[in-house]
Write a structure and sequence with these properties.
The protein is an alpha/beta fold. It has one domain: Alpha-Beta Barrel (TIM Barrel). Helices cover 39% and strands 9% of the residues. Strands 4, 5, 6, 9, 10 and 11 form a six-stranded parallel sheet that branches. Helix 11 runs parallel beside helix 12. The protein starts with a strand and ends in a 10-residue tail after the last helix. Bound molecules: zinc ion. The site of zinc ion (ZN) has 5 residues, from strand 4.
Length: 401
């Protein structure tokens, strides 16, 4: 049974002219990589990387990777970045609703009972991410990982590659998980800081994807950020230095076979991010409207959609996080209700595996992708949404209170 709820935050879509939600879902999934999986799970797997011809992905493999990589037989970069340009040009422009609402997915969005988007926050980490990836692969499900930029290092970069190889979606969860990043109201400085958090994470995700070894990752990290890996980027650096990092990042990508022209021209960057989630839910859970506007404007400049959640697993809650039965109950409720489910990489793996077994057993339960949500809500591809966001007019900020 479909739940029809207002398409935008707080049900203000009619007052603010939000576009009506389209009810069709994305095309049936046909991932380029066929994960090893339990029989019967195909129908539950979402689509994302099904649009890129294999040959083109190989053509676009970075030259550096071909020469040096132990991963040379892999085809790790099959994201939307490598779609043929002609295809991108023929796609109708994405008209975002002309409103001041934040663009993204919220509790009040329409969603379908029995269809869930699995999202895992706070990775990648060596202690947890490999087991999550293994379980997802074993059961044939795909998820979205909201990554913390500073966690992408020479000992975790291959986990980012595995995410893409297994057909998962990657989003930004900021660089350093600063839950206060949207709560300090310094106007343009706050916007620049939030933008720097996401821009740095976008770059780190791409460095992870083009790295050919741990040593290579350390080299390109230092080249782009100007500091050795292991020293974190400060708040001031995030706010003021990301344009310079980006210039060096694009130089590096060009050397490795990605003819990046600019931030807006992302047809040839390894992985243009579309989705983000503010640490702790950011300013969208009860904070004053002006703080939300600061975050919205930062996301507009970066070209990201904001993704909150309909339901949470409870894996951060005392009394639940160590209770596999309670965790499974929460996850089953998430699917029955439908929508975006919030999990973390450190969720108990026995609970996760048992939940996946229950998903396997329910033919009427389905794991779907954020991309299908974007397509349904905005009537265009996630990539077109990104372009539309970046070219949209900045909305005026309300007066500082
Ligand atoms: Zn988090």
């Amino acid at each position: 049974m479909k739940r029809r709820i207002a398409c935008c935050l707080l049900g203000l879509n009619f007052a603010l002219g939000c576009a009506p939600v389209q009810h069709q879902r994305a095309s049936p999934p046909k991932p380029s990589h066929e994960p090893r999986q339990a029989a019967g799970a195909d129908a539950k797997r979402p689509a994302r990387f099904d649009r890129v011809p294999e040959a083109r992905a190989l053509d676009a493999e970075p030259r550096g990777a071909r020469q040096k990589s132990a991963l040379k037989d892999r085809v790790p970069f099959q994201g939307a970045a490598l779609e043929p340009v002609v295809e991108a040009q023929s796609e109708p422009a994405c008209a975002l609703p002309d409103s001041t609402l934040p663009h993204g997915f919220y509790r009040d969005d329409e969603h379908t009972a029995g269809q869930v988007v699995l999202t895992f926050d706070d990775g990648p980490t060596v202690n947890h991410t490999p087991r999550v990836l293994k379980l997802l692969e074993r059961h044939g499900y795909q998820a979205t990982f909201f990554l913390v930029g500073k966690n992408i290092r020479s000992n975790t970069y291959q986990l980012v590659q595995r995410m893409v190889e297994q057909g998962h979606t990657i989003g930004s969860h900021s660089y350093n998980h600063d839950v206060e990043m949207s709560f300090r109201d310094y106007g343009e400085r706050t916007i620049g800081y939030i933008q720097g958090q996401h821009e740095a994470t976008q770059m780190l995700i791409e460095l992870a994807l083009v790295a050919t070894s741990a040593e290579d990752f350390r080299e390109i990290y230092e080249r782009v950020f100007g500091i050795p890996e292991g020293r974190y980027l400060s708040g001031t650096e995030l706010r003021t230095q990301w344009p310079e990092w980006e210039r060096r990042h694009f130089d590096l990508l060009r050397e490795r076979g990605y003819p990046v022209v600019s931030r807006q021209d992302d047809t040839a960057r390894p992985y243009p991010i579309v989705y983000s989630r503010p640490p702790g839910g950011g300013p969208y859970l009860g904070a004053p409207g002006r703080l939300r506007k600061l975050n919205d404007e930062a996301l507009r400049r970066v070209g990201f959609l904001n993704v909150l959640w309909h339901d949470a697993s409870g894996d951060t809650v005392d009394g639940v996080r160590n209770d596999p039965v309670a965790l499974q109950g929460n996850l089953r409720r998430s699917v029955r209700r439908g929508g975006v489910a919030l999990l973390h990489g450190y969720i108990r793996k026995d609970a996760l595996e048992a939940f996946f077994g229950q998903l396997d057993a329910h033919d009427d339960w389905q794991v779907v992708s954020l991309d299908s949500y974007a397509q349904a809500k905005y009537g265009c591809s996630p990539k077109a949404v990104r372009h539309a966001l970046m070219s949209a007019r900045a909305s005026a900020l309300p007066e500082q209170g």
